[in-house]
Structures are given as structure tokens and as C-alpha cells.
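Appendix B. Raw example, untouched.
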Amino acid sequence: MMHSRERRYKIRDYMSPKVLVMLALGFSSGLPLNLVGNTFGYWLRDEHISLAAIGFVSWVSIAYSLKFVWAPFLDRVNVPLLGRLGHRRGWMLLAQIFVGGGLVAMATLDTRYGLGALGAVALLVAFSAATQDTAIDAWRIESAANPDELGLLTSAYTLGYRGALLGTEAIILIVAQRIGWDASYVLYGILILVGVIACFCASEPMEADRVIAGKEAALPLTTPRGIFDAIAGPFITFFRAHGANSILMLLAISLFQLPNFVSGPMYNPMYVDLGLTKDMVGVVRGSFGLVGVFLGVAAGGYLSMRLGLMRAVMAGCFAQMFGTMLYAALPYAHDPATFAVIMILDNFAIALAGVTLIAYMSSLTSLGYTATQYALLSSTYAWAGKILKGFSGTAVEAMAAHVGLMNAYAAFFIGCGLLGVPALVLFAILERRRRGTPVPGINPAIFHKN
């Protein structure tokens, strides 16, 4: 099998229909994350909701960490009516309808009807968004004909995803400054149409559909064996394929994003408390932050080819730690120039970490169980961070009582950065175990010709 570093892509490769569809689906996947996460926290802080409450409301995104629970249904069950589009695309479209409708419902409810009602709808959006992610991730992996194309699709996905994150944490602030949060959420709910159009333009991965159909014929869900295979089969196959390293892999992945997840709910409240305007935050994020994303995506792809997936993941882990700790300087020097430098470096680090981790996790899946196995891996990397971030506001408020609010923010971001050390150590152990073994960096079983 040709190693990915031997491939040299041309411009036409990046402009192919499949890559452009992946770019749009990546945008659709990233669109709801901040709208039920960090940007939601900005909105709530604008409404004078306490930091502790903002931290606890951020738990709605735990839905992303539980998607492996219902992912087996996405592997084995067709969506009624919409399933005519294909197995993967039917689930994509259903989830997109609920995401768009849920965002509009959040705008309609607002905080006037109480935080509980708004949080409940945000939970529905998060659940639908997690389902969309599961279907899109499966499509991305199953549509790749070889490791090179998987890397290309992963880069396109990450670029679209990060573009959506910038749009929902930067441009939305400029929009909300002028038309308010309610109208902004309606507008962004409509933007899910980008994903809907991409869903109709996408080609269904036929080989994966044949494997799924074969499983359904041999082990139908109406039988006990079929139910067992749908629920337990993906996990048995994963642990059998990776053996003694399986637990270590899952633990390393689960700790990888701790700096980013735990610090996430406190960025926007800090900007409000520093007196930074929505326009300033939005412009810096949307300009310097975008540059950082492009550079980080490119660096992630390059390092994955030059260093191999494991070492590239370690580089991404270290970069993410450094980027998070940079925010400790902002309470003491929040002029536009310092903010811009921090923003470009942090977005570079997050994009680099994202590309390398996604490529690594994608390489661990098996055809026929793609949705469930990738959902397990991506849920694993989100679980610990999603739980701990709920206490982020409480941690800042507790420190603020002793050292003041600005010092508390600084200490908090330094501590969040250091949370990446255990993951770095675990990936180093996995890399050491990998050396000298014939196990390739990519599982060839997931590739096929459509």
C-alpha cells in the first residue's frame, strides 16, 4: 500500500466535487457546536447570568459525548422516507432538520422564558448535532478510497468545521451587536441549508452500504444475534483489532482535548468582564483567527505525512496546551495587538490538534462499524472535558474570592493548559510501543473503491 507521504496533490484534487462536499459538510457539522456551547455562554453573560450557571448549562453539550450510545442505530437502521437518499445521507438530513429548527426555537424562547426551557432546547440541538456528526464522520471515512484521500477529506472537513466555529464565535458577535442574539440565532439556523445542499450533492458510499446490507441480511435486527452485533459488534471488533493498546488509546484520546474543553466556557465571559466589545472580538477572531486556522490545518496535514499520525498527534497536543495558556496574559494586556497574537496562535494550535486527532481516530475504524466506532472514539475524546467544563465557572469564582477576578482568569487558563500533560505522556507511551512493529498507521480495511 502506498504511504500517504508519497502522494503529491494538485490543485484539482482540492477542488474535486467530493472534497467540496466534504468542506460544506464540515461547515454544517461545526455550525451548532458553539451555538450550544461557548457562544451560548456569551449570550447568557450578556443577559447577566452567573458564571456558575453558564458553566452548568454548558453540560448540554455532553450529548456529543454520548453519541456512541445511539450510533449503532445509524450503522444498521435506515431513516424512514429520508432513507431513500441512502443510509448515511438519510441520517444527515434528518439531523440537519432538527438542528436548524432547534436553533430557531432557541431564538424564539430567549431567556425570557427561563433558563430551563432554553437549556432544554439547546440540549435537543446538541443531540441532533451529535447525530449529524456521527453520520458525516461515517460518510467521510467510508467515502475515502485510500489513506491519501482520507487525509484530503479530513483536511477539508477540518477547514469547513473550523470555518463554522469562527463564524459562530466571531462573525456572530458582530451580527449580534447590530440585530441582537435572537435574530442572530435565526440567521444561523438558516445556514444549516449549506449542509442540506451538500447532503443532496453527496454520493452515498456504496461499498459501505453493501456491507451494512449484508450484515442486516445475515444478522437482522429482529433477531437477538442481530441486536447483539449492532450494539456489541463494533466494540468487540475494535478491541480485537487493537489488542492490549485499546484501553491506552481510549484513555489518551479522552484526555487529549481537556485544555480546549475545560477552558472553553470561560473565554467569552472573560471578554465581557474585560470590557471588550463584540465588534473587537468578532473582527479579531474572524481575521487573525481565520489565518491561524488555515495555517494550522496545513501544518496538521504536513506533520501527519512527515512525522506519522502518532507523532503528529503529540505535536498537536503540545501546541494546544501552549495556545490555551496564552490566554493567561489577556487579563493584564488586552490591547488589540496582544489579543490578535493570542488569537492567531491559539487557532493555529487548535486546528493543528484537530486535524491530527481526527486523522488518527479515523485510522482506527473498521468498515461496517464506522459510525459506531468513530462515535466511540470521538465521544471518548469529548467525555472528560465535557464533564469537567461544567465546573469551570465555579472554579473561577472560587479563585476570584481570594485573588480577584482577573488573576483568577489567568490562573484558570494556565491550569487548563497543563491538563494536556497526561495525554502527551500517554501518546508518547503508545508511540514507543508502536516502534518496530509492522502495524501500519492506517487500518487498510476501511478503504475501498466506490
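End of appendix B.
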